[in-house]
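Hi R.,

Here's the chain you asked about this morning:
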Amino acid sequence: MTAATASQTIGPYWHLIEDKSWADLTRFGAEGERIVLTGAVIDGDGAPFADGCVEIWQADPPASDSFPGFGRSVIDRYGNYHLVTMKPGPVPGRGNAQQAPHIAICILGRGLMHHLVTRAYFDGETLNATDPLLTSIEEPARRATLIARNDAPGVWRLDIRLQGGNETVFLDI
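And here is the predicted structure, written out as tokens:
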């Protein structure tokens, strides 16, 4: 067996996903509404996209000593990811637009030549109806790929499909 080269990994910090504490953004004592963001990452054939990671970052609550605003979760062999964070609130957008509460998501992994970026919005949020990004997506079915569903109290699920039918909307940034 040969050693992996830089072109075969997602970077020199890949080992950080092995540290499960990175998946808990509340680990430093953040106070507020704690939530779990979970789901599965699925490839174009409907198979789990394993051996990757999901990174999240959010502008609200603001990053602080008790809340880093950034975290990483390994995507397990079943395609699942699991992160603990704080429920975001609305944030200002361009001009006077108010963005609905959301979490930015980045998918990294083998076979991806470039990271994929998307967002998780929350089902039932009033501001979803006027969010600048969500309203720019004309097809309701496509827009729905960005909406996390409440599975249980404090648990939000967003499945991410990389290709094919119901492909998640990805952002070109």
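One quick note: The helical segments are 132-136, 140-143.

Cheers,
M.
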